[in-house]
Amino acid sequence: MPVIMYSEVLKHLKTTKGSFSITADGIPPFFFRTFADYLCQPLTHIFNICLVLGKVPSIWKKAVITPIPKASCSKSLADFRPISILPTPCKIMEKIVARNILEWIQALKCIPEEQFGFLPGCSTTSQLIHCFQDWKAALNSGKCIEIVYFDLSKAFDTVDHLGLISKLESIGIRRNILSWFESYLDGREFSVRFDDKQSPCKTCSSGVPQGSVLSPILFNIYTMDLPKVLKTDPRISVAAYADDTKIYASYDSSDMSEVQEKLQLSVQRMLDWADKWRIKIHLSKSQVLRLGGIAADINYGVPLDVQQKVRDLGVFLDSSLNFSSHIDTIISNATRTLYSVLRNVHSSDISILLKLYKAYVLPILEYCSPLWNPNLEKDILKLENVQRAFTRILFYRAFPNKDYPRALPDYKTRLRILGLKSLFYRRVVADITLGFKILRGEVRLNTSRFWTFAPSNTRRSSFNLRCLRYCSSHRDALRNSFCCRVSRLLNKLPAEHVVSMNSAQFRKFLSDVDLLDLVGCEDFA
């Protein structure tokens, strides 16, 4: 690992959040940010000495945990999410070490391509699109798919330290850097703060540190051999996002029994691997989803519930790959959140209400939208009605008028005044942006799995994206899938904007044009 430079430490100090939270060392983060220029040099020396000696100061390994409820009604300890507050110097050093370790594992390519969690160019969206592409190809070929979802219970908290050190050593982490990790993991303590009370310190003997940027990287290293263990046959596929792991396989009547045996073996290997590396699997929460027409009845040797609908990385999937139930769910959640915000915030300030809407409601409506972007008008309008209701209520508050609702501007006018775009417009932008990033190689998805390039027959474009043959099915789930939808949109853009731009230029181009007019779509505003 190279010597830590002043400039890198200074950059992290100046971007530290100006929080007044008291950490275990008694120094709030705002102090480090305020006096960054003075603290930069001594901290850099301390960091480099820590690496040379392979030691981490004990005070840096003490975390103050604040329990945050996962839901509005939290009745047990399991309903709370622990948020760790760590000393600022430790967080800065973790960021520097994390960057170097990430570069190292990327150079070695030791993290398997089946892992999509916390890696550059990867996201939940890219993983789901990758899997959906496999599933729709199998369905279009008349095959069935068996998907097994494993629930790893508190996986980050149960990582065995000795096992993790052995895996770090196996990828070439040696001598003082390995000693630094041993010191970093050993003797960690935490206390819990609730209101103005704080518990005594307890020792944490397993797991990767809560709230650390190093934790996801260390977990990926800890589980890097899992996909190879689970792939008992070329027909078995594995997809993981951190601790969310699933296996799936497609089959028809000719090889159904053979594939079922391989799936059974993969499940058993998962249990054996978890037992060896001290990861607990919640079998009661592990699930099976079956796609296709053949009624398979696979005995996995352990109780696994077969579901008609599962939640996969926050997106609800059913056995027909229809996203209507997912859309209904997010509309319900977004509406409930919207009215909760409006009920508790009595301000009529437009900027405040817009910030709250964009922070709490929009993410619910747009999470993973390239995967489930609807083509049915009823679903498009139902989604749009959430924003329609918000703009209407905002106008009632910010621009009171005794002639409402007769004098209320129409939805399109309200959007223009508030500087908003329709949700339909935003989903088209999200589709095109992700498609552009895939073409540029900025997202870890193989372009050849989605499209082929063909000579253009028009003067407008210099290339023509074509979906693979199985993407052009007459089934709605396939015809409206991401790759087919995006190829139609990208082919309508002027070629010079797609070929010659980088991501920043492309985003600016999209913000400067009427995109729907350019691609020939009608807005639903």
Automatic annotation (TrEMBL):
Species classification: Eukaryota, Metazoa, Ecdysozoa, Nematoda, Chromadorea
Query: Under what name is this protein listed?
Result: Reverse transcriptase domain-containing protein
Q: Where are the transmembrane segments?
A: none
Q: Which gene encodes it?
A: Acey_s0044.g935
The UniProt entry, under CDD domains, shows: RT_nLTR_like (cd01650)
Q: Which residues form the Reverse transcriptase domain?
A: 49-317
